[in-house]
Amino acid sequence: MSGPSTYVPQTGFTRWLDARLPIVRLAHDSFVAYPTPRNLNYWYTFGAILSMMLVVQIITGVVLAMHYVASTGVHTGGYSSIAFASVQRIDRDVPYGWLIQNIHSVGASMFFIAVYVHMFRGLYYGSYKAPREVLWILGCLIYLLMVATAFLGYTLPWGQMSFWGATVITNLLGAVPVVGESIKNWLMGGFSIDNPTLNRFFSLHYLLPFVIAGVTVLHVWALHVTGQNNPAGVPVKSAEDTVPFTPYATMKDAFAVVLFMLMFAAFVFFLPDALGHTDNYIPANPLVTPAHIVPEWYLLPFYAILRAIDFNVGPIDSKLGGVILMFAAIAVLFVLPWLDTSSVRSMRYRPIARICFVIFVVVSIALGWAGAQNPSLVLNPVEYRADLNWAQGGALRVAEVQVSDPGQMDAAIEASTKELTDAGASYTYVARESGTRATVSGLVGGEMQTQTVSAHSTDELEEAVATAKQGVGAPIVEVARHTPFEFTVTRLAQLLTAYYFAFFLIILPLLGLRETPGRVPDTIAKAVLSRQPKTAGAEA
Amino acid sequence: MLRRLILAAAAVLAFAAAPAFAETEAEHPENYPFSFEGVFGTYDRASVQRGFAVYSQVCAACHALEHMSYRNLGELPDGPFLAYRVTNEETGAQEITLTPHGHHGKPVDPNDNPYVRSIAEAATISAIDRETGQPTDRPGRPSDRFRSPFPNESAARLANGGALPPDLSVIVNARHGGADYIRSLLLGYGEPPAGVEVVEGKYYNRYFPGGWIAMAPPLVVEGQASYSDETVATIDQMATDVAHFLEWAADPKMAHRKSMGFSVMIFLLLLAGLTYTSYRLVWRNEKH
Questions:
Q1: Structural domain count, chain A
Q2: How far B93 CA sits from the closest chain A CA (Å)?
Q3: ipTM of this model?
Q4: Is A378 helix (H, G, I), strand (E, B) or coil?
Q5: pLDDT tens digits for A178-193?
Q6: Which CATH number does the domain housing residue A230 bear?
Q7: A262 at the B interface (CB within 8 A)?
């Protein structure tokens, strides 16, 4: 794609350097002369935005590391840890520490906003398809590293969510069969989350961004080998299809970066805590579990997938099943280039895939919502009902059951119950006093009565049942509770998870074989130059 | 179509980002119009000063401010006892005062600030005597951390029936509802509704999640804290002032943050205009 270099050194020094280390030539070919498709829209500016965010996070992070102290020891004269107190010191006493800390913590959220837009853009325009498979996989790797870095960074302030988030995630790894427990202890540096954990998390949180930077270089290298994809999805065929990177793409990227910075600054200066959780301002306490442990917003969809599995499948228990699906949700992205069978790249020309994609975006956001909710929250209006059955009048007969061996208990009770039923008892009631003693009561004769109570929650229902029982006054009341259909957040998350995987594993592979694509333009230039001014930009 | 969908998705996202789990039975805190709210909001200095009086005369018996030092009271931008050096126009003498007198006053270093010094000196700080190496007590200095009412967490729990009075340095950040919640909580004590089971050793508060709080009603009589200005220290006033003080304690750099934010937004808007114009100029002859 890059073609032969067009760089011509202008000065004596650059000629001298070019013969020894052609670094200026590399920069010129990569960021000045590099031909970019002329039809790139604003969705394609997020690569530049992400590069900026990586630099911002590394610079602010390096400064924060100069002041942060990774220690869980109790800070002098207080109850919180030294780590928690050092973050407070940064906010209060380090010159502009409040600014740097806000930029770094808000920056993590901004980084993820940008990376999600970037990934959805890649999905929509088919940027993962040949010849860009390696480019896409490197991107997925960067995303995975970002998730790890963000999770590690979130533990550093050593607030309640830091501590309990770390507990939940390290426990997940404990679900891995055979080696899970060892991995967990190795990662924690002990048998619980403590100072060794915080120290290694800090160390890794400092290391991984540089790994991200390294993979980003590979990502850009791969991009410059294959050339950029574009909204039409058709490959570049002639010089007419492209414009040089500088000034065309550079200026467009610069404008988009400034717009993004406006949003970034609004959060940093006016809503610095809006994207965080209040509980992380409570110092970590291993003895008090927060009412609801939730990760940061950008990991909520995966958290929802993790919790959606509340059933066992054969030898896989629900916990391991959740962990497998959560990692599979990211792993599936790595193999996406070979799952999508369509030869048309851009979903602009794939009417059905396009609808499925939009549903996929909505499903991903809904998963994020589900991840923030209490999993047992019931979403549909439900009426809980219970039937009370009793007999009015009649005679109460009581039989004592006593056995010497607890193993015979069930048989003895059954026999005694049968005796009462044979004697015409309409209701029987068993009260076990110990392993070898019980009382079986039965009501003989009397008139059958039924009463139904209903309520809007299970607690209210039990209250209503208790009240109704008192009102009835019969010695034996049989209560039959009806469990209505409860559409909980977990059920919703299961449906959403099913679509998430179906999109990659069923829809994209099958649709590519069946779908009739729209008319794909022959060249980028044709698509752009023939477009009516009226519809120009309708896509962006 | 895509654009509309994105807008819808953004709306959903905003909804999802709203505090998850607001499901406790506790009442929603009353929204009080604090002066620091909003993009241009500032602290009401008199209220922060009165709030400090409430903290030091009432709350400090149990609650620490472990991340704060006495010097913070006299620091820029919004320390409640930040003093200014001004020249008396009649006598020509230098005077230190709490009112800046327009722009003529020069902020006084907290270490030289008589108000901060006297507040610090009133506290007894445990220290190690340099000569003998033995534990000793000395009057506080502006550089000292606020004296904690208890030497450590165990002592605090023992004195409070097992409950730990939380540190108040960042309490408004650590609770949903922030200053509104603190104010409401202080005013929310009362008789439990009929049918609610009484919890031994705890107090009913309609704003506290679960309803039963270990903290006894801290503000019980008018004039409990003595104010140096003419404001009447009603229970409502004390609760409002101490919430105001705690907001300042959690976010002492707010004024810097907001004013810099305003400049940064203006700068970025201008830069956006400039880059957009350049972008249009560069692309004027290219179709895309």
A1: 2
A2: 33
A3: 0.90
A4: strand
A5: 999 999 999 999 999 9
A6: 1.20.810.10
A7: yes
